[in-house]
Amino acid sequence: MKKYIVYIGMLAVGLLLGWLLFSDSSNKEMEHSHTQVAESNQMWTCSMHPQIMQPEPGDCPICGMDLIPAESSVEGLMADQFKLTENAMALANIQTSIVGNNKTENGVFKLSGKVVENEEANAVQVSYFSGRIERLNVSFTGEEVRKGQLLATIYSPELYAAQQELITAASLKESQPALYKAVRNKLKLWKLSESQINQIETSGKVKENFPVYATISGTVSEKLVEQGDYVKQGQSLLKIANLNTVWANFDVFENQIDLFKKGQAISITTNAYPNKEFKAKVDFIDPVLDTRTRTVKLRAVLNNKDAVFKPGMFVEGKIKGMTSNGEKVLTIPSSAILWTGERSIVYLKTNPNEPVFEMREISLGNMVGDNYELLEGLNNGDEIVTNGTFTVDAAAQLQGKKSMMNKEGGKVMTGHEGHFGTEEADAGNHEKHSNMNERLKVSRDFQNKLKVVFNDYIKLKDALVKDDSKNVVGESKRLIDNLSKVDMKQITDIKAHNHWMSLEKEINASAISISKTSRIKEQRNHFKHLSSHLTNAIQLFGVNEKVFVEFCPMADNNNGAYWLSKEAKVVNPYFGKAMLTCGEVKQVIE
Predict the structure, then answer these.
(1) Rounded to 5 degrees, what angle do the CA atoms 542, 543, 548 make?
(2) Which stretch of DSSP H or E encloses residue 200?
(3) What is the pTM assigned to this prediction?
(4) Of 40, 428, 485, whose CA–CA distance to 225 is shortest?
(5) Spatial CA neighbour of 538 closest among 491, 500, 498, 582
């Protein structure tokens, strides 16, 4: 018995010693393993320029100081994820949409669509006589006009001669009443009112310039002429859209047509008012199938007297009490997609409650209206960026994440690394860099009109350099006006067309934001976004001129910001006289 007790005691002591020895070794191994992982994920930054983030120690590419270990992220983000501030989201007007099937769920059929102008309420303002536009009272696209408002004054040699005929015929109206009546009718055909004709007759004086009045109230959707242009009789001057009602257009697939009929109740929601539901009825189903996309258009008319809906908005329609027997088709808006070479990418919002994003490569099928069929890369219910995609891409580049121009991610140097790097990086990766920034095919006329916008941008930049906020507003309005003349119809390549559609919207939004404030600090904040989008446009389409991309690491609260210039000399628009020469050339766009 004593023998067994001794054996048991020895076994217990052995187990205790083994636990003490091996647990310590195991802990050390685990500690060593965790240390290795931590060290492998360690990033290095500059104390003076926190936007610098590199995977190994070295010198800061801006000031040459030794890099220090960066603090680990406490936000729990994955390696390819990045976060935007709420302020940045608002300034760039970043909007997201849920990826969803055109399918039935619990008897509710969902459709994706877009708000467009009501074509029945649109009008084209024409000139009823030939002549030269002496004054055009409409300054820009988007201006509101009222019926009867003076739009322009025109000098017309024909009308000048016809007035002289009236004065002569008036003196002969007793002896030649037919001639007198014919001359008056001729002036009526040119839309002169009875009171205008009587005034000419009684005064005996010829008017040199004649007014053109608006025949409809609405919003100017397109300016077709400029002050000083010579116009012919019947020539269009302006396109005016009455936005009191708008259309919501939806695409219905061929195998789903039998589910819909005119008069069905449809509930419509939009990202702009996520908690509101608007009631409408199916007003029209296109009798002709689009053979390219195998879809038909379904339309609902929306009351818009409160200007809730803006043409171009994405909407979702829901029709209750239906059963789908059709194939599920997943589509996403074309505005969500960025193309580079053969790659198609979108930005996925990974956290529904936080502005956290990551790049996702996708495969696309046929184009369906303003959407594309999604073959792979996303799931039903995923939330993706549908407005402000280029801004999110720029943020990804700034933070060294995977992006349109930087497939692998990681900081190369500073700023938009996918677009811009140091001379050494460009020399080492010239071929790869060139392929990533392959220029898209557009007409020379399109490039020339984009160049006019670029020239307006340069004037706006020069006004910021001089701290002249008043002139900044004026130049931004000129830029908006000339941007509206860049004709999207001249782009035949579908990728180029969709790129410009997204960029034009972003450039216009940034310029409008600049025009609406007289505070120089706010103007510079919006100018940062304007520069980013215009840089993308010039890289993709070109302006037949050498353009210098310049960077200041201290702008935007030491986050760094870019701008464009026609010369290599640095003149900083973000600080004006305070720091006129702060910055350097980061890239030359040939």
Answers:
(1) 85
(2) helix 194-203
(3) 0.43
(4) 485
(5) 500
CATH 1.10.10 for the 444-589 domain, yes or no? no
User: Which tokens is 549 given?
Assistant: 């991309």
Mean pLDDT of the chain: 78
Phi and psi, residue 404, nearest 5°: -60, -45
Radius of gyration of the chain (CA): 32
The CATH number corresponding to 121-241 among 3.40.50.300, 2.30.110.10, 2.40.50.100, 1.20.1250.20 equals 2.40.50.100
At which residue do the structure tokens 């790659």 appear? Answer: 343
Does pLDDT of 49 surpass 90?
Answer: no
Q: Say which CATH architecture domain 103-118+243-328 belongs to.
A: Beta Barrel (2.40)
Over residues 379-415, the pLDDT tens digits come to 888 899 988 787 788 778 767 788 776 666 654 333 3
- Return the closest-CA partner of residue 238 out of 361, 119, 138: 138
What beta strand segments (E) does 254-397 contain? 265-270, 273-285, 295-303, 314-320, 330-333, 338-340, 343-349, 356-368, 371-376, 383-387
**For 259, which DSSP code?**
G
Checking DSSP bridges between strand 295-303 and strand 245-253, what pairing results, if any? antiparallel
Same fold, 88-96+332-436 and 444-589: no
How do residues 257-269 score in pLDDT, each as one tens digit?
888 889 999 999 9
Beta pairing partners, 111: 317
Percent of the chain with pLDDT over 70: 77
Token pair for residue 319?
A: 């029709």
Task: Give whole-number Cα distances, 336 to 153, 189, 190, 360, 398, in Å.
Answer: 44, 50, 48, 11, 20
Q: Where residue 430 falls among pLDDT bands split at 50, 70, 90?
A: very low
Contacts 24+ apart (CB under 8 A), 172-181: none
Please name the residue that has the structure tokens 């140097």.
Answer: 413
Domain with residues 88-96+332-436, CATH architecture: Beta Barrel (2.40)
* Three-class DSSP category at 334: helix
Strands 230-231 and 150-155: unpaired
Q: Cα–Cα distance between 57 and 42 in angstroms, integer?
A: 10
Residues 6+ away with beta carbon under 8 Å from 455: none
Q: Over the stretch 457-513, which tens digit does the pLDDT of each residue have?
A: 999 999 999 999 999 999 999 999 999 888 777 676 766 777 787 788 889 888 999
| CA dist., res. 263 & res. 573, Å (int) | 56
Q: What are the domain boundaries of the chain?
A: 2-40, 88-96+332-436, 103-118+243-328, 121-241, 444-589
